[in-house]
C-alpha cells in the first residue's frame, strides 16, 4: 500500500525528484572525493614539506566542499517542497474522498479516526518522502562509492568492511523488527485519544451538568497512559539504535587504527591512506545507518499508508449514476416513497419496511412516531445520505439514484435534527446554500424563521460571529438559523427533521404560520415529536417499529390509529400535568 500511495501521489513531481537525485549524486560524490584529497595532503604535501602542493590541494578541498554544501542545500530544499506537496495532495485526496462518503461509511471509520488519518498518518508518510529525498539517494551512493574508494586506498584492510557493515546492519535490523508492532499500536492509540478528547470537548456541557469531570479525566488518563506506554516501548527500542551505532563505529575505528598501524609500520600503507580508509569506513557505516534509519521509518509509514489506503479504497454506498437522468425544468417537485425498505449491514431486522406515501407540491406531510421508530432514517433516504436497500425514493417520478447528486441536493432544503453551524458569521452560514443571496434575502429568511429579532440585537448584525457548531448561540437560536439557511436556498422540497423541538409553543406557531406562504409551492416533509407542530399537516404518517401504522389527517388518525391517539393523549396529559 505504501508503494502504491507514493507512486500515485508523487507522479506530478518527476522534475523535482530527478533534480533531487542529481543533486544528491553530485553532493555525495563530492563528499567521497574529500578523504582522498586529505590523504594526498598528508602523504604528498606534509611528508615532503611541499607547501605549494598543500595550498593547491587545500583549495581543491574548499571548492569540493562548497559544491557539496550547495548540492546538499538545494537537494534538501527541493525534497522538502516535494514532500510538502505530496502531503498536501494526499490530504486533499482523503478530504475529497470522505466528502463522497455516505453516513454509513463515516460511522464505520468514526470522525476521530478520519481526522487522525488525514493529519498524523499523512504526516508520517510525508516525513518518509522527505527523508527519502535526503537520505535514500545518498546512502547507496555513499556505501558503494565508499567501498570503491576505500579499496583504492588499501585492499589489505578490506576485510574490516566485510565484518563491520553486516554486524551494524544485523544489529539495527533486529531492533527495527521489534518496533513494527509498536508503530501499528501507536496509531490506534492516537485514534483513541482523539476520540475521547473530541467527545469530551463536544459534550462539555453534559459532562459538567452531570458532574462527570473526574470520570472523564480518568477516562482520558487511561487512553493517554496507553498511548504513553506504547510510545515508551517504541522509544526504548529507538534509544538502543544510537548506542549500537556508536559501539560499532568506535570498535571499527579502533580496529582500523590497530591493524592499519601494523601495515603502516610494515610500509604497506602510508599514514594519509590509512586516514582516508578510516574516513571511508565511517562514511560506509554512516550510509548503512542512514539506510537503517530509513528502514526504521518505513514500518510506521507503511502502517499509516495502510490506514490511508483503507479510506481511499472504501467506496461510498451512495454511488452517483453513470448516466444521470435529465432534470425536468420545474420549480415544483413531487416526492414519492414506493415500498421503501432500509436495513443496516449485518442487522437482524430492517429499520424501515414497506414505506409508501406521496408528497405533492404545496402540501405538508408529517412523520411522527415513538423514539427509534425510524423517522430520521426515513428522512435521510430522500437526499441520499444513505440509500434504500429495497424500494425506491422518487422525485418527479425519477428514482433519486438516477439523479446527479448535485442536482438532487440543489432541489432539497434540509434542516437536520441537530442543526450545525459553521465557524464564520450569521451571513456566511445563511449563504451556505446560496452564495449569491443578498442581505435583503437573508433578512427575509430570518424574519420567517423568527430569528430576525435576536440577530438584529447582535452588535454586528449579519456579520455577528458564529463559533464552530454554533456554540455561542442557544439551541433555539441555532434551530432558527438552520431553518433560515434552508429558506435562503428556496428549494422545491423542504425536509424538517424535528427542527422545532427547541422552540416554545408561541414561536413554533408563529414560525409555522410564516412558513405557509413561502412553502406554498413546495413539497414539505416534517419529522416531529410534538403533535402541535403537525396538527395542521395535509398528511400524517405514523411510524411504529419501522412500519407505517397510520396515514391521514389529525382528526382521522385520532379515530383510526390507536398509536397516534396514544401519542396525542400522552402529550395532552403531560401538558395538563405541567
From TrEMBL:
InterPro entries, alphabetized: AAA+_ATPase (IPR003593), ABC1_TM_dom (IPR011527), ABC1_TM_sf (IPR036640), ABC_transporter-like_ATP-bd (IPR003439), ABC_transporter-like_CS (IPR017871), P-loop_NTPase (IPR027417), Type_1_exporter (IPR039421)
UniProtKB keywords: ATP-binding, Cell membrane, Membrane, Nucleotide-binding, Transmembrane, Transmembrane helix, Transport
CDD domains, sorted: ABC_6TM_Tm287_like
Chain ranges of the ABC transporter domain: 335-570
Record-linked SUPFAM superfamilies: ABC transporter transmembrane region, P-loop containing nucleoside triphosphate hydrolases
TM stretches of this protein: 12-33, 53-78, 127-151, 157-176, 237-260, 280-298
Sequence ranges assigned to domain ABC transmembrane type-1 in this UniProt record: 18-300
Domain of life: Bacteria
Protein name: ABC transporter ATP-binding protein
Organism of derivation: Micromonospora costi
